Amino acid sequence: MRAGLMRVLLIHGWGFDRRFWEPVAARLRYETCVPDVGFSDGAARGVLPDEFVVAVGHSLGLLWLLAHGVLPASALILGINGFTRFARAADFPDGVAPRILERMEAGLGRDAGAVVRQFHVNCGLSGGPDETAGLPVPESLRRGLHLLRHGDARALRDRVAGVLASRDDAIVPPALTEACFSADRISWSRSGGHLLPLTEPDLCVRFICDAMERHRHAV
Length: 219
Prior knowledge:
Blueprint: E1 7-11, H1 22-25, E2 31-33, E3 54-58, H2 60-68, E4 76-80, H3 98-123, H4 138-150, E5 160-166, H5 174-180, E6 186-189, H6 196-199, H7 201-218
Parallel strand pairs: 1-2, 1-3, 3-4, 4-5, 5-6
């Protein structure tokens, strides 16, 4: 396939907006489509394209893609800091404790902005509030937390061709990643934390392009 015929769909995770992908989108030599999931108001929502070659979900973005069944059978699906299930369950002991998500949901009713800001800090972001960001949308954030709490796409794990993960991810620890994907599907970064598209955009671009190249030779 020629580069001009390829379209890359990029889906952000919980508490972020489409601007999260700007460092990666600026470096990709392919056409990109970057919709907004709607966690803040005033964001340009965008629509999913009718056709695309590869879909990349960051964090919750990967589970969102799998859970919503929006992907054509021919799509190459990739994850960055992603997972097929997030919350702990009886048959998923490596998940995150549900009480953490329950506390976040309770906090949305008091001060949604504070919950999002604290999550950003937990992810490794520093600095003051983003003055260009829209106001948080509690109902949309609550739906995202519900998906994090109850979403389970483990049955679709083989649809994910590869996932880029970080050994020092404080949100999605290595054990959770390894519980979601087979070892041959995981590419590890020693550092970079939970926000690899921001901290290691060149690495993310190489990961996406290498996967696309392998896919091109396989079809």
